Amino acid sequence: MRSVITYTGARLLLFVAAFGLVYMLGGRGVVGLVIALVISGLASYVLLAGQRDAMSRSIVERISRLRGVGQRLDEAAAKEDPVADTNSRGPETTSESAAEVPESQTPETGSSPSAAHDTPKP
């Protein structure tokens, strides 16, 4: 994190210095800002290469650590899944009890839902 702050601060200082230089040379307004932005960008590309590399290394290391945490959590969850499956299974139903009432029948009438509405009962 320190390298990110250092690099960002150095970029801002370069921009302020470039803008001051452009302002002293007569560049004012939006044109002066654009020229200062281009100058500071080119200067930071050359002058801050080492800090940029250090910043990118620290970001990559941090992302690697965060991904490592996710992988460890996934591995731990995978280990827990078989244990949770055996504990949550409850009593097993037999095929005979499941065959007693077909899915298409309603418990109230014993017939299919559409048949109960088709014929009126006297």
- Runs in which pLDDT lies below 50 for 5 or more consecutive residues are none
Report the radius of gyration as a whole number of Å: 36 Å
Mean pLDDT: 78
Query: What is the β-strand count?
Result: 0
Give the end-to-end Cα distance, rounded to a whole number of Å.
Answer: 82 Å
Give the H and E element order.
HHHHH
Global geometry: rod-shaped
Quote the beta fraction. under 5%
The proportion of residues forming helix, as a percent range, comes to over 70%
Structural class: mainly alpha
Number of contiguous helices: 5
Sheet with the most strands? none
Explained architecture:
By secondary structure, the chain is an all-alpha fold. The chain has 5 helices and no strands. It has helices at residues 2-24, 29-47, 49-88, 95-99, 113-118. Helix 1 (2-24) crosses helix 2 and helix 1 (2-24) packs antiparallel against helix 3 (49-88).
Question: What labels describe this entry?
Answer:
mainly alpha; 122 residues
Question: Helices and strands in order, then pairings?
Answer:
Blueprint: H1 2-24, H2 29-47, H3 49-88, H4 95-99, H5 113-118
Helix pairs in contact: 1-2, 1-3
Short description:
By secondary structure, the protein is mainly alpha-helical. The chain has helices at residues 2-24, 29-47, 49-88, 95-99, 113-118.
